[in-house]
Structure formats: C-alpha cells, structure tokens
From TrEMBL:
<feature type="region of interest" description="Disordered">
    <location>
        <begin position="1"/>
        <end position="23"/>
    </location>
</feature>
<keyword id="KW-0808">Transferase</keyword>
<feature type="compositionally biased region" description="Acidic residues">
    <location>
        <begin position="412"/>
        <end position="433"/>
    </location>
</feature>
<keyword id="KW-0547">Nucleotide-binding</keyword>
<keyword id="KW-0418">Kinase</keyword>
<dbReference type="InterPro" id="IPR008271">
    <property type="entry name" value="Ser/Thr_kinase_AS"/>
</dbReference>
<feature type="region of interest" description="Disordered">
    <location>
        <begin position="313"/>
        <end position="493"/>
    </location>
</feature>
<dbReference type="InterPro" id="IPR000719">
    <property type="entry name" value="Prot_kinase_dom"/>
</dbReference>
<feature type="compositionally biased region" description="Basic and acidic residues">
    <location>
        <begin position="358"/>
        <end position="371"/>
    </location>
</feature>
<keyword id="KW-0723">Serine/threonine-protein kinase</keyword>
<feature type="compositionally biased region" description="Low complexity">
    <location>
        <begin position="327"/>
        <end position="344"/>
    </location>
</feature>
<dbReference type="Pfam" id="PF00069">
    <property type="entry name" value="Pkinase"/>
</dbReference>
<feature type="domain" description="Protein kinase">
    <location>
        <begin position="26"/>
        <end position="299"/>
    </location>
</feature>
<keyword id="KW-0614">Plasmid</keyword>
<dbReference type="GO" id="GO:0004674">
    <property type="term" value="F:protein serine/threonine kinase activity"/>
</dbReference>
<feature type="compositionally biased region" description="Basic and acidic residues">
    <location>
        <begin position="315"/>
        <end position="326"/>
    </location>
</feature>
<dbReference type="GO" id="GO:0005524">
    <property type="term" value="F:ATP binding"/>
</dbReference>
Length: 539
C-alpha cells in the first residue's frame, strides 16, 4: 500500500519550456539566494503563457564578466538543461520529478530561467533542528538519489550535493513536499577533466575532492558520498564533520568516521547507521557501487524491507545479527513476498535445525568462536572424518579437497583407507578425531613436504601467505596457521570480497556455481579464506 504522505509528483511537474525575452522579465530587487558567484531572483513573466512566476539566475556582478565566467555559466545552463530534458522526455523517468526544471536559458547572455520552488531549500529546513522526522528524512534522501541517478545515467556527475542545492515544491494536505536538485555549476561530464573545486562546500565534500592523487578523481561515487553526507544532515541536523575549513578537510580525509546517526537520535537503528556509514566510506571502493543501490538501502530502512547485501554484510560483520542479514530477513518472513522480490536476494529456508537459522557466514563465525574458546579443539564433535586413498595422490590439492567434500556428503559416512601411502602410517583413531578442516590442513602439509603445487602451478608455500610464514615447524607449514584455523583477515580485501560474493549467491539461491566451483575461481591468496569456511554446514 502506498504511503499517503508520499505526494503525487505529477502535481509538482516542472513547467513547460518556452522562449522568454530576458528584457521583459520583471525580476525582484532583492535576490532569493546569493550563493557562490550567482544571484537568484523571483521574477514575473508579463504574458498569458505559463508559468507566470519563475526563478531567474544570473551572475552576481554582470558588469565585470570575463569570457571564462560567461562560458562557465552557459556550460552550467547546458548541463542543467540536458539533465532536466531527460527527466521530462524519457519514459524511464516518467515518475521522477527531482531535478529543478529549466524553462529557458540565454544563448549569449548568461542567465537561466527556472522553475520557481515555493518551498525554500533544505538548508533552511534543517537550520536549528536535530533533523527531519525519520521517515521523511529517508524519503527525501531517496528522492535526491533518484535525481542524481538520472544524471549518472547520462554521464553527468553533480559534485556539489548539499542542503542549499536541494529545493522544495510544496504539496497540499499532509503529503511531504517534493525535493528537487538545483545548481549544476560544478557538474561535469565524466569524459571531461575535473574542474576547479572553487565554491565547493567542504562540509559535504568527499575525500577525493581534496586529495585526488590519493583517492582518485571525483566521479559518480563522489556523488554517493555527498548524498550520504546530505542524508546524515537530514537525520541529525548537521553535516558529518563540523569546524573550520581546515579541520573539516583534515577530518574528511584522515579523521575517524563520524558518529553514527544513532548517537544523535534514539529512533535510528543499527541498520540505518550501516546504510549511512556505507555511503560515507573514505575509500570509494568501500561505498555503494552506484547511487541507486544507496536509494534501495534508504527505502529498505524506511519500509523495513530486505537490505542490499553490502549493508547486510556490514551488519553481520559488526554484530552477527540474523535480523539484519538481507537474505535471512526476507526468507524468515514468508508473508513478505514484496521484500523478496524488491531486492532479489532472499530465499525461503524452512528447517527445524536451530543452526539453520544462521546464515552460512554466521555459522562460520560461530565455529571460529567455538574453536577459539576450546583452544584449538575440534569445533564439531559430530564431524565425520575422511581418509584418502592411493589413487588420490595424483590429484591436485584443490581436486583432493573436492573429493573429500564429495565423500563427506554421501550419507555422512567416512570411506575406509585400506592402502593409502601417507594415511596408512597414521593411527586410524587419531584421524577420526580430526575435523574436516584439520584433515585438509594435514593433506596440505603432506603435499608441501612432497614439493607438490596447487592447481594453478604455484607452490603451496607461496599460496600459504596469511601473514606468518616464520617458524620452526618440521613440516614447514604449521606457522602459516593457528591451531589448524586459517585467518581470513590476513588475506587481501579483494579475496574476502570474492568469497563473500560466492557465499551471498548461495545464501540467496541465485548462485550459478557451487561454493566449491566458486572457490576454484578465487585466486590462491583467497583459497585459505575459502577453506576456513568449509567446516560450516554444507551448502
């Protein structure tokens, strides 16, 4: 059911484009806004064609204009007009009204006639407050994301998203006023070189706008950060960092993450904290991959739907809560088919086993905690152990692991080992006390001693790079692990993401490969992290 507070956007559609004679436009004497190097006036159009009231933007000091200033202003007009035209004319954006409409622009003289926004700007609405009501704040954030998403789809980035550039059209009754994005003065095509950051508001700027050499050139993910800072202000009444210009620049680039929204308001949940903090990551690769994913996360937080995987994974890593995992939250609510279909990352899991209520990743963490408490003792007393036959000696390490996995899945029985070369020398009762992971480790050590290589041709010594390769173990590999347990945190971030992607696909029921096949495609440095998960319930 549609929330009655969400207005009919057609009621606030941008006025039609038309040719205006700048000389006949009657502008007020005092400007509505005097930000940057331009002034905006309320103006009347003296004829019978709509609209009869517009906002007129022109340079702050037209008497001292240089050619560069005029060209920069006209370029803003062209960019703004392009984005607005796409929103008006393309069917895909028929339900979108989140870019301030352009009515006409000067061809030689620098002026822009635009839609008159009668509801003021977001900076005015936030002034002296602790933020908007929760649902309205999230909805406004969704609308801003939608307007930025439209621009991104045509290769345009805004690069100056802040409260004073979000204007409102009022709506009747109890419906929320509609926000639209204005001031595309810093916007640029992604094919162009980065412009100067003159006039940039530092409190809503991304790290790469201060240090592009360290964080990369500003791009679409810069807008993601800026919208994140805007949503933070919507929720708290203030930007993520405050202070003088230099202190804010330092904090944005080198400081600790800002206090989460829940530190400022009681109705902000851990899930909402994760939604916002993901957008505000210093490194671009840690943010949402696109602004539309941020929009989906805001909508999920507002409507209590399944969160995008990037947020669910963040929450799982923070507190291991099954409630906040995207796939799990959708699958445990059998009546919430909308939640499952909206994000496409949930499946039903109907089982009586309490451990089955945990996600695969959470089960791995549970096993890890148990093993840590037991100081290296087996994590599962019921784990069926596997011995290896002679013919498997010709297999690669990965193939041998797959063979063990297949044998474990057959009725939970352990095959006998009548004539194994290396295994025959081990005491049978000792083998039965090993977990599957420890048995895999034993195989890895045996193959390392024999000088054999992994399936990609590299030696086991080079594959076992989990940060501690020193030690005096006779086998040469004992120092690469702790009590038979690999530490995924010692492996590169990329390898963790590879594994997380494989696991997420299996949890959601959308995986095209089995976990084993997905692991086989990971690079060797992530193989150890993958093996650390294999003792969890078979997926």
């Amino acid at each position: 059911m549609t929330d009655p507070r969400i207005p009919d956007r057609s009621a606030v559609a941008s006025p039609p484009r038309r040719d205006l004679d700048y000389r006949t436009v009657d502008a007020a004497k005092s400007p509505l806004d005097a930000g940057g190097q331009a002034l905006v006036y309320e103006a009347a159009v003296p004829d019978d064609e709509p609209p009869d009231r517009i906002a007129l933007k022109e340079p702050a000091d037209p008497g001292t204009l240089t050619g560069d200033v005029v060209e920069t202003f006209l370029e803003e007009a062209r960019t703004w007009e392009l984005v607005d035209r796409r929103e008006r004319e393309k069917h895909r954006w028929a339900d979108s009204e989140h870019v301030v409409g352009v009515i006409d622009t000067g061809e030689r003289l620098p002026w822009i006639a635009m839609e008159y926004m009668d509801g003021g700007d977001l900076a005015e609405r936030l002034d002296g407050t602790d933020g908007l009501a929760l649902d309205e704040a999230l909805w406004v954030g969704e609308c801003v994301c939608r307007g930025i998403e439209l621009a991104h789809n045509y290769g345009v980035v805004h690069l100056d998203v802040k409260p004073s550039n979000v204007l409102f059209r009022t709506t009747p009754g109890d419906a929320w006023d509609v926000p639209k994005i204005a001031d595309w003065g810093l916007a640029r095509s992604l094919s162009e070189r980065t412009r100067t950051m003159e006039g940039l508001s530092v409190t809503y700027a991304a790290p790469e706008q201060f240090e592009p050499d360290e964080f990369g050139d500003p791009d679409m993910l810069t807008d993601v950060y800026q919208v994140g800072a805007l949503v933070y202000a919507l929720l708290t009444g203030r930007p993520p960092y405050v202070g003088n210009r230099m202190s804010v620049m330092h904090d944005v680039v080198y400081g600790d993450p800002p206090a989460p929204p829940s530190a400022h308001r009681d109705d902000a949940s851990p899930a909402l904290d994760a939604v916002v903090s993901t957008a505000l990551e210093t490194s671009k690769r840690d943010r949402y991959d696109a602004v539309q994913i941020f929009r989906q996360a805001l909508r999920a937080a507002r409507t209590d739907r399944a969160l995008p995987p990037i947020v669910a994974d963040r929450l799982s890593a923070d507190d291991r809560s099954p409630r906040v995992d995207a796939a799990e939250s959708a699958s445990t609510d059998t009546g919430s088919t909308d939640a499952a279909s909206s994000d496409g990352d949930s499946t039903d899991a109907d089982t009586g086993d309490p451990d089955e209520d945990l996600t695969f990743r959470e089960r791995v963490e549970q096993i890890r905690a148990e093993r840590s408490e037991d100081d290296g003792s087996p994590a599962d007393d019921d784990t069926t152990n596997t011995s290896v036959a002679d013919e498997s000696e010709e297999l690669t390490f990965r193939e041998r692991v797959e063979q063990i996995r297949a044998e474990r899945s057959e009725d939970g029985e352990s095959p006998t080992d009548d004539d194994s070369g290396d295994s025959a020398e081990a005491d049978e009762s000792e083998l039965e006390d090993l977990t599957f992971r420890e048995r895999v480790e034993q195989i890895r050590e045996e193959r390392s001693e024999d000088g054999e290589s992994t399936s990609d041709g590299s030696s086991n010594d080079s594959a076992e790079t989990d940060g501690d390769t020193s030690g005096d173990d006779a086998g040469g590999s004992g120092a690469a692990r702790t009590d038979g347990w690999f530490d995924p945190a010692a492996f590169p971030e990329g390898s963790e993401r590879d594994l997380a992607a494989a696991i997420a696909g299996i949890e959601s029921g959308t995986a095209e490969l089995s976990l084993a096949d997905a692991i086989a495609r990971c690079d060797d440095r992530s193989l150890a992290a993958a093996l650390a998960a294999m003792d969890a319930p078979d997926h």
